[in-house]
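input
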Amino acid sequence: MRYAHEKSIESEYSIKRDLAAAYRLLAHFKMDDLTYTHLSARAPGSNVFFIYPFGSLFEEVTASSLMKVDCNGNIVEGQEEQYNQTGYVIHSAIYKKRKDIHAIFHLHTTAGVAVSTMKCGLMPISQFSFHFYNRLSYHNYNSLALDHDQHGNNLQEDLGNHKAMILNNHGTLTCGASIQEAFFYAYYLEQACKVQCAALQSGQQLMMPSAPVCEQAASDMCDFEPNLGQRDWKALVRMLDKKDPSYKN
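output
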């Protein structure tokens, strides 16, 4: 019994360590937004998730500073400067519905917000964007997500079976079976949005591959790496460990 308990503690720590690393890496790539936006990861075998304390910068997050919150928005462990109502509505609604999802990233990057204002949505004009071809949801803006019944249910219904979504006039949301997968989608959705903004700004007529080619590219990319995001993640963590390993504390 003691061995199982120790394994559970070790498993929770590894998830918190990786989630703290994700916060630090997004700060490194300047994909954070002061003390807003949030990343979470499900605790092993539960509807409880880890999330940073509202009021912290991404670059400040450590494994030990992460809070544990249940899917009713109750803080189980930790404390924060201000109760993060929108964060808990967004994350808990998805975790309740999608048992296959173990990490959720919500961001407000300039490129992501810019594309979220475009009626065309994300266009299939770059290899980055093909990751999301016919695999991207959209959610209409309805002020701050403060209500579980209205905002939370609508959000998870709009996400459907996908792992990436554009929140219109707001930002982006990516999910994964692991923190590494959620990070992979967050990073490449950002690259796709950056390319689209730059291409549209050029004023040139844009080329789009045919629908069959786009679908083939999307399928090939999913099959190219069995554990999506793992290879890049290992390299990024090596970089982070050299730069500042304090996220593990």
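quick obs: Residues 16-248 form a domain with the L-fuculose-1-phosphate Aldolase fold (CATH 3.40.225.10).
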